[in-house]
Amino acid sequence: MSIQSSIKRKTAPDIRARKRGEPIVMLTSYHAHTAALVDRHCDVILVGDSLGNVMHGFETTVPVTLDMMILQGAAVMRGSRQALVVVDMPFGSYEASREQAFNAAVRIMKETQCGAVKLEGGVRMAETIAFLSGRGIPVMGHIGLTPQSINTLGSFRAQGRNEADWGPIVDDAKAVAEAGAFSVVVEAVAEPLARKITETIAIPTIGIGASGACDGQVLVLEDMLGLSPRTPKFVRRYGNLGPAIEAAIESYAADVRSRAFPGPEHVYDMKKN
Ligand code: KIV
Known about the structure:
Strand content: 5-15%
Largest sheet: 8 strands, parallel, barrel
Distance between the termini: 33 Å
Low-confidence stretches: none
Bound molecules: 3-methyl-2-oxobutanoic acid
CATH class: Alpha Beta
């Protein structure tokens, strides 16, 4: 008897084939239950290293570890059924050598069963991307603003604002595509540059703060839901859950304090939300 699910999960080649086609919808998720919601509407779920900021309250993604990514990646795989799940390779897990990257990516893929990994960097990571994709590991690139480099960049600033600065970013995009990445996140670049990159390379571009000129979009789920204490200015809000959650917690605290709480007969009566 087959143990394969009847629902076919999207694959890296499915996403690669969407170049200049229907826009690719991608959101982050780090938990099984939010993954189940995101899964119903998105082509790709990114288990981003932004979980360091969102879940752990770090100022940057630098402290995030491979174990953190694997734990949350496995949870997202359990919660989702049809989206391609891409897990970020955290800072320090892939930059030293192609072999280091391969070993880290294999751990991610074996222990989470996700469909692809993402890593930051263009020209400087091209050899590693080719090494991984040539050995059965689909790679999503990430160029423009690369948050793991915050300590050399100095700030989270938009990239390529002047045409004179476009060259290295276009070179990064070409290097990632030619190395065999199946798609590339383009972060915080001005619209004309995002358009140029999207028109130039053969793989889908997925923008974040990079305009609608890309082949798809990604946002951090908590940012678009209004749950993050601070969000980049470009983020469009689709919800305002922070105040709603706080109101619910306030009502709960009031119930507890006034002893208005259900008795044990209700406790294990499950209802579907
Ligand atoms: O970690 C993350 O959420 C990301 C997105 C910003 C693309 O890499």
